[in-house]
Design a protein that fits this description.
Layout lengths: L9 E7 L3 E10 L2 E11 L14 H15 L10 E5 L1 H5 L3 H9 L7 E2 L2 H13 L7 E7 L4 E7 L2 E8 L3 H8 L7 H25 L3 E5 H13 L9 E2 H14 L18 H14 L4 E5 L3 H13 L4 H12 L4 H22 L3 H13 L11 H11 L7 H12 L7 H27 L11 E8 L2 E7 L6 H16 L3 E6 H11 L1
Helix pairs in contact: 4-10, 5-9, 6-9, 7-9, 8-9, 12-13, 12-16, 13-15, 13-16, 14-15, 15-16, 16-17
Length: 513
């Protein structure tokens, strides 16, 4: 990735929500992201999940057709200035990989399935960049499959949560027949309250100065309340207005009868479920009013992408935070990072490893020992578990899986099943990164600041690596023994590692002379 993003250059984000897919294209204008084009389509991916969380063919086709139309608008946006994120529906789908493989044939870069708390962080980033007022704010975003709650100040979130309740999922669960009965509405509200109570005490204890809602469901409710004259002068959502809207919906009794001014046709079917969730939020968190922000996940994704160009990458802050949390040895990590980068630079052109691979290797090198906080025995497995299952701001699920595989493979035996996992997750580039990390760690087994042997790594062919070593004539039998054992591990993954001790050869030739 380039080191900067020039003014006027375009960047874009695709947000694959559980209800709607969104495309936003923007340009950088004096440090701010200015939207120049957008598209939004109701796909209702979550509606295609069956009782076993398998995404049906009809939903997959809706999604793929929508993405094809989006790609037609991306001609002026280079792939490194685009991010594509997917949320709850694909988080839940057991066959998400099937859909992603089909989408990969259409899209210019891979989809990132992001965790719920990462979604919340990005939503807050999008909202906070569109709000003028400061102070501590509570941000709420009701999506198709999940609802995100964030408390933050300025651009920094304090608490992030993602709860399993959304307008599409609740429509299926409580209003599938289209009937808006008091019983169905009360059941939906009760289910939402149960979810919200799990976070209510923590959020109330932290407190907030203002409340802001974002995205389609809250926008739709606000538009209806404004059209009915049930909002205040600033067009905020009021608890009293929600009460009146609830009564009107119950009086209509059927989703097909909904015809409020300002409500889009594709929002009618999910309005009762969305209102039930919003009602529960107001009730449990004791809210009186809620403002609305046009900022949302896609804006947050673009600001996050902009931060990466400006060397303000949240992923690097997250790596350092994990190292601190698990008391990783910073000096040892820096040694391994430096050597890993040296090895990477020597072979990257031949192995066709790009800047993203360099970033992945560097972050894995920093994190390779975090498992020591749990136990010395098998700490590489403990570290991999932490990376796979933690909420790590800035990282997609694929990112975390690849980091976990790198850490899991950096020591001990390399097995055939590990190789299969690595190839499935990242292909040959990820396998090569695993081997580079192993060599970097091995070179620093002494954990000292003393100079390590000079090494030169070369790729002879697709199955042969050659490692030249110059230890300045100071024989290190333990190090050479470790390398010989490492040769056996490389063979398990189909790579022959040749070791050339150039200093020993030089010493022999001098003696012969």
């Amino acid at each position: 990735m380039s080191d900067f993003l020039a003014e006027e250059e375009l960047l874009a984000a695709i947000d694959m929500g559980s209800n709607s897919f969104h495309l936003a294209i923007a340009r950088l204008d004096h440090g701010e992201v200015r939207k120049v084009a957008s598209m939004s389509e109701k796909v209702q991916l979550a509606a295609g999940l069956d009782e076993n969380n398998y995404l049906n063919e009809a939903a997959q086709q809706r999604g793929l057709e929508c993405l094809s139309r989006f790609v037609g608008r991306l001609g002026s946006v280079t792939p490194n200035r685009l991010r594509i994120v997917a949320t709850n529906a694909l988080r839940q789908a057991e066959n998400s990989q099937e859909f992603m493989q089909r989408a990969a044939e259409i899209l210019p870069k891979p989809i990132e399935i992001i965790a719920g708390r990462e979604e919340a962080r990005l939503i807050y980033l999008g909202v906070s960049h569109t709000m003028a007022n400061g102070g501590r704010r509570l941000v709420v975003d009701i999506g198709g499959g999940s609802t995100e709650f964030i408390i933050g100040e300025d651009f920094e979130p304090i608490h992030t949560e993602s709860l399993q309740m959304g307008c599409v999922a609740y429509t299926k669960a409580f209003f599938a027949d289209g009937i808006i009965s008091p019983k169905a509405f009360d059941r939906a509200v009760a289910a939402a309250k149960k979810e919200i109570r799990a976070i209510a005490s923590t959020y109330k204890a932290t407190g907030w100065d203002t409340v802001v809602g974002s995205s389609g469901t809250i926008k739709a409710c606000r538009q209806v309340l404004v059209s009915l004259g049930l909002s205040d002068a600033q067009e905020n959502i009021l608890y009293s207005g929600l009460q009146v809207l609830k009564e009107r919906l119950l009086k209509l009794g059927d989703i097909r009868q909904i015809d409020f001014e300002g409500l889009r046709d594709d929002r009618r079917a999910v309005l009762p479920a969305g209102l039930a969730i919003l009602w529960a939020i107001f009730d449990v968190l004791e809210l009186d009013k809620m403002a609305y922000s046009d900022g949302a996940l896609r804006e947050g994704v673009m600001y996050d992408l902009l931060g990466r160009f400006r060397h303000e990458d949240i992923r690097d802050r997250s790596v350092q935070a994990m190292m601190a949390r698990y008391h990783a040895d910073q000096r040892q990590a820096e040694r391994v990072v430096s050597t890993a980068r040296q090895l990477f630079d020597q072979v990257a052109p031949t192995l066709q490893l790009d800047a993203d691979c360099a970033d992945l290797l560097r972050r894995a090198a920093y994190l390779h020992e975090i498992g020591l906080a749990i136990s010395h025995g098998g700490y590489h497995r403990h570290g991999a578990y932490l990376l796979q299952h933690s909420d790590i701001p800035g990282f997609s699920q694929v990112d975390q899986s690849r980091l976990a595989l790198l850490v899991a493979s950096h020591r001990r035996k390399l097995k055939a099943e590990q190789k299969e996992q690595v190839l499935k997750s990242g292909g040959m580039p990820l396998l090569h990164l695993c081997l580079l990390l192993r060599l970097a760690v091995l070179l620093h087994h002494s954990r000292s600041d003393q100079q390590v042997p000079e090494v030169q790594l070369a790729i002879k062919d697709s199955q042969t690596w050659q490692l030249g070593i110059n230890d300045h004539g100071q024989a290190n039998l333990l190090f050479l023994t470790d390398l010989q054992e490492e040769q056996q591990q490389f063979e398990h993954w189909g790579i022959h590692l040749e070791i050339l001790n150039t200093s020993a050869q030089l010493h022999t030739s001098k003696q012969e002379g």
